[in-house]
């Protein structure tokens, strides 16, 4: 009887703890309009002459228990974003809420309790571990910093953590240089997990490791997530790492999120041209497609400078679909399909958001040379299919002319021999009928 009562008490205490935490699927972290501009200063008086707009207006949320993958080319602001949400950096503007609490400008003292809940794993397992400290000291540091005394003492808990991440607990007194890259990253993971965090932000956790070791570390993180109910934000520069482990994926370009969708939707039907380009860079081991022609999209040039990002859509200088509106008007990140947000005037696999604007910019014509024929054909095919669908819905006079264009496009697309320049040229001819001229110089 008394045991039962005790049982109930324990359960009630457990429930109380649980109700404090976000239930699986609930928003754990919410970011609104997040910005980080690093000032550029010059001269004797260190006058500010400009700013690196590393993160330039992010809106997203992280749900409890999920893995959110964040991908994008080097310099697009992924690490800055990671450091902002773990509050290692002070944001220039915007808001960060953790479990409904505004933590945007919390000071050191205010942040202390939150430090336990949010941890970061860094990219470089060589420089992120102090070479003069034993791994026992390194993994035990969070307890000392937070003044936490684990049951059974720090040493025992650290040894338990080492075995959790697959390391020998007897190696407690060894130094980082005695471990391989993969083992060092396990040490970093053990350290991040010491205080049982709710959110772990992992900045390129495996990109410094040998490919053969990468899968092991990713699998370890995956197992730990299940065992410990962790929520992850995993940052990577390409999709090869995050594609297997992420529930949702945010694609970043020059300080902005250009597409945010669940993994399935993103793989089945990416809507942002940049996402499509990133995906084409990752070979898909699909036996059904082994005879398919290569569908690689090579993006021309480097990412423009975040000091003065291009006007309108920041991707317009490299996008094969860019038109005048892309140069002048920034597309908002909109939920075009359930669970799929995208910032593009002419999305893939969806109805055109600016169908009246058909004149390709010069940059787009040049970019098209680097886009595989299949991609251009597929693009034309989807826009034709969407246009046909719309025409079916709309029986008015106007839709008849739309339909004839879409038929043309379909016939173009179905010709398997259509080459890239031809496909681009066919676009141009459609434009000319609109008697518009490109104003891009
Ligand atoms: N402390 C800083 N001061 C000035 N500029 C910075 C600072 N940190 C980052 N930047 C700049 O901000 C931009 C975004 O950098 P960030 O490191 O966030 O990109 P990233 O996406 O993580 O790139 P990578 O894939 O190379 O790690 C870059 O142009 C970078 O040079
Ligand atoms: S089509 Fe326009 S809006 Fe869409 S990604 Fe290309 S340049 Fe940006
Ligand atoms: Mg980085």
From TrEMBL:
Acidic residues: bias regions: 390-410
BP-aspect Gene Ontology terms: peptide transport; transmembrane transport
* Domain of life according to the entry: Bacteria
Q: Which UniProt keywords apply?
A: ATP-binding, Nucleotide-binding, Transport
Annotated region Disordered: the residues are 382-441
Q: Say yes or no: keyword Acetylation present.
A: no
How far does the signal peptide extend, from start to end residue?
Answer: none
Question: Which residue stretches, if any, does this entry annotate as coiled coil?
Answer: none
Please verify whether the record's keywords include tRNA-binding. Answer: no
> Which molecular function GO terms apply here?
ATP binding; ATP hydrolysis activity
Gene3D superfamilies, alphabetically?
P-loop containing nucleotide triphosphate hydrolases
Q: Indicate, by first and last residue, each region the UniProt record lists as having compositional bias (Low complexity).
A: 411-441
Q: Which residues form the ABC transporter domain?
A: 29-279
The entry's family comment says: Belongs to the ABC transporter superfamily.
Q: What is this protein called?
A: Peptide ABC transporter ATP-binding protein
Give the species this sequence originates from: Streptomyces alanosinicus
Q: What is the lineage of its organism?
A: Bacteria, Bacillati, Actinomycetota, Actinomycetes, Kitasatosporales
């Amino acid at each position: 009887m008394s045991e039962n009562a005790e049982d109930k008490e324990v359960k009630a205490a457990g429930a109380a703890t649980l109700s404090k935490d976000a239930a699986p699927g609930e928003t754990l972290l919410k970011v609104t309009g997040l910005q980080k501009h690093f000032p550029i200063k010059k001269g004797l008086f260190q006058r500010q002459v400009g700013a690196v707009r590393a993160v330039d207006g992010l809106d997203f949320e992280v749900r409890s228990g999920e893995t959110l993958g964040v991908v994008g080319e080097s310099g697009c602001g992924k690490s800055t974003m990671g450091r902002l949400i773990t509050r290692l950096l002070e944001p220039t503007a915007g808001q960060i809420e953790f479990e409904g609490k505004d933590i945007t400008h919390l000071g050191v003292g205010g942040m202390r309790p939150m430090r336990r809940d949010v941890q970061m794993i860094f990219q470089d397992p060589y420089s992120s571990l102090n070479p003069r400290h034993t791994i026992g000291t390194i993994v035990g540091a969070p307890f000392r910093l937070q003044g936490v005394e684990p049951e059974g003492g720090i040493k025992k808990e650290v040894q338990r953590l080492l075995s959790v991440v697959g390391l020998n607990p007897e190696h407690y007194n060894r130094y980082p240089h005695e471990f391989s890259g993969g083992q060092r990253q396990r040490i970093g993971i053990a350290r991040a997990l010491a205080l049982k965090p709710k959110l772990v932000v992992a900045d390129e956790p495996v990109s410094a490791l040998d490919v053969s070791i990468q899968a092991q570390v990713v699998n370890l993180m995956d197992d730990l997530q299940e065992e410990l109910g962790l929520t992850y934000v995993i940052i990577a520069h390409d999709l090869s790492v995050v594609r297997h482990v992420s529930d949702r994926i945010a694609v970043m370009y020059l300080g902005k999120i250009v597409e945010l969708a669940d993994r399935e939707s993103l793989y089945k039907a990416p809507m942002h041209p940049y996402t499509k380009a990133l995906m084409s860079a990752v070979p898909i081991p699909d036996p059904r497609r082994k005879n398919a022609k290569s569908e690689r999209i090579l993006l021309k040039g480097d990412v423009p400078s975040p000091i003065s990002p291009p006007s309108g859509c920041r991707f317009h200088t490299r996008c094969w679909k860019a038109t005048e509106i892309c140069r002048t008007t920034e597309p908002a990140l909109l939920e075009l399909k359930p669970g799929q947000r995208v910032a593009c005037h002419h999305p893939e696999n969806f109805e055109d958001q600016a169908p009246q604007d058909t004149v390709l910019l010069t940059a787009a014509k040049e970019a098209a040379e680097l886009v595989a024929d299949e991609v251009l054909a597929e693009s034309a095919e989807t826009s034709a299919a969407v246009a046909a669908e719309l025409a079916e819905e709309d029986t008015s006079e106007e839709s008849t002319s739309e339909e004839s264009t879409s038929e043309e496009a379909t016939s173009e697309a179905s010709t398997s021999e259509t080459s890239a320049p031809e496909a681009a040229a066919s676009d141009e001819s459609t434009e000319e009928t609109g008697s518009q001229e490109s104003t891009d110089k």
